[in-house]
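pasting Peptidoglycan-binding protein for the record, 466 residues
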Amino acid sequence: MRTIRMDSKRTTNAVAAALAVVALTVAAPAARADDTTGTPAPTTTTSASSATTGPASGTDTSTPTGATTATASPAPPASTAPATAPATAPARTTARPAPAGTFSAAAAPTAVIPRTAPVATVKDLQVRLKLVGQFPYAITGVYWSAVDRAVLGFQRAQGLAESGVVDQATWDLLRARTSSPVALPRTATALRVKDLQVRLKLNGRFAYAVTGVYWSAVDRAVLAFQLAQNLPQSGVVDQRTWDRLEAATASPLAIGRTASTGQLKEVQLRLRAVGRWAYGITGVYWSALDREVLAFQQQRNLPQSGVIDQRTWSRLVALTYTPGTFDQHRYSAGLAPVMPRLAALDSRCRTGRVMCVDKATRTLTWVVDGKPLMVMWARFGRPGLETREGTFRVQRMYEYVISNLYFTPMPYSMFFSGGQAVHYSSNFARLGYASASHGCVNIGDHALVKSLFFKVRVGDKVVVHH
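structre below
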C-alpha cells in the first residue's frame, strides 16, 4: 500500500510539472507581443494548482516537501532595448477635450488703439465714434471711461465681440462706417490741386508754392487740417474734408449775378484791363462772365469759386486801380469812382470836415474826421483858367446862383476862392471831359452834389491838390 501511495504522488507531481510547461508555452508569445510594442510585459506567476479546474473530492492537494512554485518569466525582447523604460524617457500624453461644464480662458483681443495711444489717434477714434452716434462728448484726445463705453456700444450695435477694446475688426468696421467719398484724389487736374493748395495755404496749413502738383506736403497739410478741424484723419481729401475746407476759406459775395448794370460794367471793364474780357461792356451777367472770373481766380491763385467774392474783387481792384491815376474807362462806362482809402488821401484831408479835390483822379471826396463818406467825379478849369490849388475854406453858399461873368446857372454853389466854387454843371453832365470849366470845380451828378451841399457848412475846409 505504501508503494501505491508513492506512485500516486509521483503521478500527481508529473501532471503538475506538465501543466507548468504548458503555462510557460502560452505565456511566452504574450511577452513577445508586448516586446513588439516596446512595452515590457509584467512578470506573471502561475501556480500549478491554479492551472487545474479543482481537485477531486478526497484528493490531497498539498504541495509536497521540496516542491517549488513554477514562475513564468518573459522572454527576452527581440531588440536590444532594455526590458524596462529608462527613467529619463518622456511620458506620453494625449490631448483630451475639456469635460462638459468647464470653460477654457480665451485669449484677450489685441488693441490697435490702446488706452496709451497718442492724443491725435485718440481724437480720430473719438471723432469717428461721434459720427456713429456713440460718443456725445467733446473731442479731447483723452482716452477715458466714456470711450470704453462708446467702443462697447459700437461693438454691440454692429454685432461684434463685445470686448470694449478697439481691436482690428472693430477699427476696420468703424472706419468703414465713417468713410466719405473721395472729392479730390491725387490724380486730380493741376487746376483742382492748385485750388486745394490755395485753400490750405489760406488756412495756414500749406507753406509752399502753389504749383498744382500733389506731393507729400499736401498729404501732411490735409492731415493737419483734419486733425485741427476734428475730422476723421484719413489723410485724403474726402467730401467731408473738402466741404469743411471750402467753408473755412469762403469769402463774402461782393458782386452777384443780380448786381446793378453799373457794377457789372465795372467788373467787365476791370476784367478787360487784366486781359480777361474780350466782349462788350454791357453790364449783363452771362456765362462768359462766370468763365472769365474763374479764369482770373485760377491765374491769380485764388480759391476757384467762380463768383466775385470779396477776396476776388479786392485783387481785381488792386490790379486795375492805382491811387493817383484817373480811370477814364470807369467814367466812360458811367461808373462811380472808387471810394479812396484814407491813406491814399492828401494828408491835409485826413482831419476835420474837408472837401478833398484831387486833380489826378478827377474826384472830389467828402471826408469827416478821417472817414471818407462820399466820392464823385469832378471837372476843372481849362488851360489859362486853371482851378487854383491849396487849402481854402468855404466862404459862402448858394443853392441857386447865376454866374456874373458867364451868365450860366451854378446850382448848389459852395465858394472857396474868390469866384471859384464847387457846383453842379449841366455841361459836365452832358459833355463830360470833352469840355472844361472856367476855374470852378464842376460836379456832373445832380443828386450827389445836392446831397453834399446840405452836408457842408461855411468854414469847412477845401483842399485842392494834384
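The chain has a mean pLDDT of 82.
Residues 98 and 105 are 12 Å apart (CA to CA).
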